[in-house]
Request: fold
Amino acid sequence: MRQAIRREGLAVQREDEAFSEDIYEASNLMPGLLQLKFSYARDGQKLARVEYVFTTFSDNAHVGELMTRIESRFGRPQRVTGREESGPYHAVWRLPDQMEVFVGREWPQKTTYLKFFNVSVLGSASADSERESLQPKMGKAQNIHALPLWVAR
Reply:
């Protein structure tokens, strides 16, 4: 797998048997793409996850463009949280071949992710846990620009 990745011209950022995830600089593959990450099962033989990490965009349209591409291939997602226009946003597709596709945008950084999970290798609990780590936290929204209690207003 590593040889095939290198043949595509990706520059290695981390490729080490001590880690289950290899990281490659991928800005030459598509506009806005920073990294490609490949995660393997513990035995190192099976691909468990592929993650595309896109640069932080000044506008919110990138996640919509990515959604359009993924929807054209896999149809409507099974689950969507957040709004495409602003704020954290996440969409999940469950495919019949034990694969899941995840599109997400962090907030306020606006970093966009596209992830492919091989659930049969990664395990559904691990895929759920990883997706949930990027999902917006439920509960009262916090103003990140609010002053601490001890600052006079």
Notes: The first strand starts at residue 11 and ends at 14.
